[in-house]
Amino acid sequence: MSELALTTGRWPGLLVRYRDRLPSLPPDAQPVTLHEGMTPLIRAERIEQALGGDVELYVKFEGLNPTGSFKDRGMTMAVTLAKYRGAKAVICASTGNTSASAAAYAARAGLRCIVVLPKGKIALGKLSQAFIYGAEVVEIDGNFDQALEIVRQLGETGAVAVVNSINPDRIEGQKTIAFEIHEQLGRLPTHHALPVGNAGNITAHWRGYREVAALTGEGLPVMLGFQAEGAAPLVLGHPVDHPETIATAIRIGRPASWDGAIEARDDSGGAIEAVSDWEIFAAQRRLAREAGIFCEPASAAPIAGLLKRAARSPLPPGSVVVATVTGNGLKDPDTAALGAELKPAIPALLGPIRDRLGL
Amino acid sequence: MSELALTTGRWPGLLVRYRDRLPSLPPDAQPVTLHEGMTPLIRAERIEQALGGDVELYVKFEGLNPTGSFKDRGMTMAVTLAKYRGAKAVICASTGNTSASAAAYAARAGLRCIVVLPKGKIALGKLSQAFIYGAEVVEIDGNFDQALEIVRQLGETGAVAVVNSINPDRIEGQKTIAFEIHEQLGRLPTHHALPVGNAGNITAHWRGYREVAALTGEGLPVMLGFQAEGAAPLVLGHPVDHPETIATAIRIGRPASWDGAIEARDDSGGAIEAVSDWEIFAAQRRLAREAGIFCEPASAAPIAGLLKRAARSPLPPGSVVVATVTGNGLKDPDTAALGAELKPAIPALLGPIRDRLGL
Fold first, then answer.
1. pTM for the full model?
2. Which helix (H) or strand (E) holds B182?
3. Residue A201: how many CB atoms within 10 A of its CB?
4. pLDDT class for A349, splitting at 50, 70, 90?
5. Rounded to whole angstroms, what are the CA distances from B98 to A258, A348, B159, B204?
6. Hey, which end of chain A has fewer CB within 10 Å, N or C?
7. Quick one: pLDDT at residue B9?
């Protein structure tokens, strides 16, 4: 990667940019890329005022990845390696961001993408991305765990490559977010807040931060994970059988990366806490109205959590906080319009409109 | 802008990056930015094969701007200047991408955003972005032209800044797309294809390309604009009173930048042609399934148009074609899921699933 190419804005995607820090990527593997990554790090001045004096808050807006979520970081890695190893198809059990990302990268690679789902649980609209990218969707008589089990069994036959988060290439690709934050900030943050569902992302962030710190000798951030109250197994310390929350992307009762989340929390001196659906909803609106960033509900959990913690005890002066906002609000337009209503129409005349608007 | 900052990926947004090429931006104006721009330029290898031998096709994916469309380029400029000039509110008459972008940048700037609409014409869902960013939506008894007229009158009172495309700052900001394409490609393309609705974007592209060519002495691209058959005033040579197309973002019968579009077409030796809704729909799917890019229907018009032209006469060998894909497909999920259907569920057993999938 020449310096010229970077200065002229040719962002080549994660695998090219960070190839030397992804040892599991063979030198002759051809990246399957949609130029994911290097998402904006946007300062949220108006919200940071609520966190304490002399605190900086930056939002890493992962919703601007090619399929609208952070999943693209792991998927470019997983699909590149699947293709490199000779797979003709990738498969996952997912109703949301994972299936969208898998379908897009498979399309790019010229591979089949198969999505296995429990029967009758999914509205077609939620699958619009998977459909348009050409994924084959199969419904089974069974629950989500059975869908995942079948996917695992199919993977073992060698016929398909599993790209669910049990695939370790996913977390390896996702760790690159820490590299970017370090480059964009010019330092490591003091605190990092993010939503925690399946816990792969907090695991990946922590891995990436440790790799940066090992290179630069800087101090590691305190990791602050936030779950929804109705789906908070890591807060409770035990799995949740029927998780419930409006934040569908983190509606998970048995996190696949449980140990990774606990390690990130404990090694960083951090915490994993719960926020209510109402706090999530309010934080989603606040992020849109005070920072101009529209995210899906789950992504607002870290903002909700930071505000909740700060009300209890403000962050120390000099704190530099990064919050990962994992998915684009356009993925869930119905939640966005909740509560919106229009007043009765008025005549198309200057006077009444000025009156209505107080102008 | 230091070279270091760029090499480390701190993309600062358009106004900082291209300040020296935006003379209407006063040196002391503080940019209102969401780090818009430098959207990926993604090669579409599988589609370019259909355009002729030895042709390169690149998609400039503007759907990855902060609010999901190219409008953010003009809006960062318009809202920055509105705030600089002391405005307390911005206003527009728009049902779609313009209102979303205006609302986000106004939120970022701490300004009010007012959206004026004809009564009863708009589903709340289409306005989800405007609502979540906190815009005030006012319905009037009247049609879209009357809404725009009231907006114009309110602007003349000095109480609000109009950010519809009659605001010349919009096109000035939008021209930066040409600068980026030149940097990303390392040259000017030979052909540029894009959707044409209100025609501000083709006008802005052409202005930007001419500015690049004046600096570098390179040859200018041939500009190829595509309208929807039911909303093709520039193809017909006269306004269309009741435009109709599934491509709502270009459903416009009286383009505001008519003259700019004709100038771009004629000065570049280009063309403005029509494509059918069916061709648009098919191209949207093809772009998703062969390139991994999910765009709103209007954005697929240039892909449809390029394929239609190539069927008639392939592009010359050596052509380097860029197509602007203006908006994110997540803005219009209903169109994406059209035609999707699920087969009956099958037992959660390896055998039946392998049979179904032919694995």
1. 0.96
2. helix B176-185
3. 31
4. very high
5. 43, 21, 20, 16
6. N
7. 55
